[in-house]
Amino acid sequence: MDVSVVAGSGRYAGGVRLLRREEWRGVHIRRVRCTSLGRAGAGRRLTDYATYFVQTAARVISMRAPDVVVCLSTPPLLAVLGPVARQRGARFVYKVEDLYPDLAFALGVLQEHSAVGRTLARLSRAILARADAVVALDEPMAQALHTRGARRVEVIPNWADGEKIWPDFEAGDRFRREERLEDRFVVLYAGNLGRAHRFDAVLEAAKALAVGEPRVLFLFVGDGPRLAEVRAAFLDSTNVRLMPYQSAERLNALLNAADIHLVTIRDEAAELLVPSKYAAALAAGKPVLLVGGRFCAMAKEIEGKELGLSCDHDAQQIASAVLAACGDQTGARRLGENGRRVFTKRYDRRMATAQWANLLSSLMRSPMTGKGSGG
Fold first, then answer.
1. Helix axes 329-346, 315-327, angle to 10 degrees
2. What SS3 class is residue 89?
3. Which CATH number fits domain 4-159+349-365: 3.40.50.620, 2.60.40.770, 3.40.50.670, 3.40.50.2000?
4. What is the DSSP string of 129-198?
5. Other Cβ atoms within 10 Å of 172 Cβ, number
6. Which regions of the chain carry the CATH code 3.40.50.2000?
7. SS3 (DSSP) at 206
8. What is the C-alpha separation between 136 and 145, in angstroms, rounded?
9. Contact (Cβ atoms closer than 8 angstroms) between residue 279 and residue 298
């Protein structure tokens, strides 16, 4: 396939400008001009989203219509460009990372019955109805999309690259030496500290463990709107460390340096998104501690396939789970080995890209229906 990507010129974490044009393994990457302020505040993120959206819309309208256009649900409302491309003859695939505007309602960012909330809900349903295919991350999300008007829904989970992330004791040990973590039991949170995640109970548990089990270290690597909350809670703490996003070259070492990977999710958002850090933890062969979302599909898989531990947003439960893993590291390794086996069967990049290739090929072979057909 001849593949082109319309991306932004800034990095996820902000501050760095990337090449306007680039070729990567036969993929044509075209980056539009937009701000690169990062994710430290809502205003910065909105500005980055808005400038990217405007420039991308201009590109979609002016470019020759492709056979298929794939739009993501993030940034919010980006997918409205899918029906625009479809009007010009392209087939439209909507990849849903987060269920919008449902997630905004659940997090209290928008009121469901407000004028803006009702308008966005109608717009979301219109986008789903016009998509030739919608890609969901798990079965509950797929069912929700069906009820909201999607005609065809395929489930392709978040994936990690099993050739770049794998159980590697030496790399993890090297990272621990470089960062002076040799004698610590490392609880790693790697990724976006976003509004859909909660850290209050985790921080309370960390404070208790600083006294009860000083070997335990909570390592937060990343950025996001809740970073300031974590930083403020532990300005002088001995068992919490903060680090910025790590380079791709250090990612496997970082993930392997952890004894257990922390995933948090607000209960009200549990079936509206799937944290991508989950697949990365399984790829590294590490156990997972899920805090919140006890009844979501991810929690059921963790418990049913013995991939780690899960608990509520309760400091005592979190501390007990960490102590249990710390006290039984042989058992923790077994959970991690289970995770790698599940990863190779469900979450490896090769499987996901094969599913995507099959989906796109089937769309190009099938005739277009509805408005915009004939291209």
1. 100
2. coil
3. 3.40.50.2000
4. HH-SEEEESSHHHHHHHHHTT-S-EEE----B-TTTS---HHHHHHHHHHTT-TTSEEEEEEEE--TT--
5. 22
6. 4-159+349-365, 169-346
7. helix
8. 8
9. no
Burial of 225 from C-beta contacts in 10 A (0-12 / 13-18 / 19+):
middle
Residue with tokens 């859909």: 196
User: If you search the block for the tokens 């929690």, which residue do you land on?
Assistant: 299
Note whether 332 and 289 are within 8 A (CB).
no
Total residue length of the chain:
375
Q: Which residues contact 290 (CB under 8 A, 6 or more apart)?
A: 263, 264, 265, 298, 299, 302, 308, 309, 310, 311
**CATH numeric code, 169-346:** 3.40.50.2000
Query: What is the pTM (predicted TM-score) of this model?
Result: 0.88
Give the C-alpha separation, 225 to 256, whole Å: 26
Per DSSP (E only), the strands in 3-89 are 4-8, 21-24, 27-32, 68-72
State the residue for tokens 């739009």: 71
The pair phi, psi for residue 2, each rounded to 5°, is -90, 110
Q: Report how far residue 226's alpha carbon sits from residue 195's, in angstroms, rounded to the nearest whole number.
A: 7
Mean pLDDT per segment of 10 residues, for the chain of length 375 residues?
90 77 94 81 81 91 90 87 92 93 89 92 94 95 94 96 97 97 96 92 94 94 89 82 94 98 95 93 98 94 97 97 95 97 97 96 79 42
**What does the DSSP 8-state code read for residue 204?**
H
CA 289, CA 287: separation in Å to the nearest integer? 7
* pLDDT for res 374: 36
b/e sequence 230-261, b meaning 16+ C-beta within 10 Å: beebbeeeebbbbeebbeeebbbbbbbbbbbb
DSSP letter at 38? -
357: tokens are 């290739």
Closest CA to 225 of 202, 189, 195, 198: 195
Q: Checking DSSP bridges between strand 288-291 and strand 308-311, what pairing results, if any?
A: parallel
* The two three-digit tokens of residue 22, written as one number: 């680039």
Strand bridging mode 27-32 / 21-24: antiparallel
